[in-house]
Amino acid sequence: MDITCGGCGKRYRIPEEKLPKNGVAYITCPQCRKKIRVEAPGHSPEPARPECRRKASEPVTAEGFERFEPGTRTALLYCPDKDAGQQLESVLKNMDYKIRAAKSAEDLIIRFKYHIYDLVFLYQKGPDIDDRLKEILDAINQLEMDIRRRILVIYIHLAGNRFDTLQAFFLSADLAITPLDIPKLPEIISDAMKSKSAIYSAFYDTRTSLQDDAL
């Protein structure tokens, strides 16, 4: 199917087999980095509802207002699998990361108002994306682009492939890995951060140059 970026007008052809069979995907325009919403063929949108509404049984706690010392490494986790969550925390603690849990989309948005987390881990338990994970993905896609560029989003699911950049692209993540990759996170994160830094270093240099030329 053909899609058009609302930011720069660039047109792209996306293989339909790469899209979710029932649902919505967000992709990032390679040219201007704007998020593009893509609805799978035959998808029936859900009735509109207030953005990131939380259930009465899931209040946002004061943890969302937490501040960290400058230079602190931070990671935000959404992981409904207890064993995988414990494994993730163990690896990240050994890497000196302060770890917090994202309980809902609204929780994530509130947290990012007060602190920009270095890492965000999204764990898909089973073959299908659950509703809460969908809402959290939407919340990440709503973050300001300058904030989103500073975050490394790692999506974990059974079919993840860290060498498949197109897969991560369609998941609105920087990297897609499998649960078996969790012990290798120190190496994976290091390589991914170097790669992302190199990409955006060129972007920021170009933007600064254009701004200077406009003065």
Main attributes?
215 residues, alpha/beta, Rossmann fold, 2 domains, 5-stranded parallel beta sheet, two-stranded antiparallel ribbon, 9 strands, 34% helix, 19% strand
Notes on the protein architecture:
This protein is of the alpha/beta class. The chain has 2 domains: 1-41, no CATH class; 71-215, 3-Layer(aba) Sandwich (Rossmann fold), CATH 3.40.50.2300. Helices cover 34% and strands 19% of the residues. It has 6 helices and 9 strands; from the N terminus they run βββββαβαβααβαβα. The chain has helices at 82-94, 105-114, 131-141, 145-148, 165-170, 185-214; strands at 2-4, 11-13, 24-28, 35-39, 73-78, 97-101, 119-123, 152-156, 175-177. The strands form 3 sheets. A 5-stranded parallel β-sheet has the order 6-5-7-8-9. The chain has a two-stranded antiparallel ribbon with strand order 1-2. The protein has a two-stranded antiparallel sheet with strand order 3-4. The longest helix has 30 residues, at 185-214. It is globular. The model is unreliable at 47-63 (pLDDT under 50).
Structural class: alpha/beta
Strand content: 15-25%
Task: Summarize the biggest pleated sheet.
Answer: 5 strands, parallel
**What is the mean predicted local confidence, pLDDT?**
81
How many whole angstroms does the radius of gyration measure? 18 Å
DSSP summary, beta strand count: 9
Order of helices and strands: EEEEEHEHEHHEHEH
The CATH class of the largest domain turns out to be: Alpha Beta
Reported CATH architecture of the largest domain: 3-Layer(aba) Sandwich
By CATH's scheme, which homologous superfamily of the largest domain applies?
A: Response regulator
Portion of residues within helices: 25-40%
Q: Which topology of the largest domain does CATH recognise?
A: Rossmann fold
Shape: globular
Number of helices: 6
Q: Largest beta sheet: what is the strand line-up?
A: 6-5-7-8-9
| Tally of distinct domains | 2
Distance between the ends? 41 Å
Low-confidence stretches: 47-63
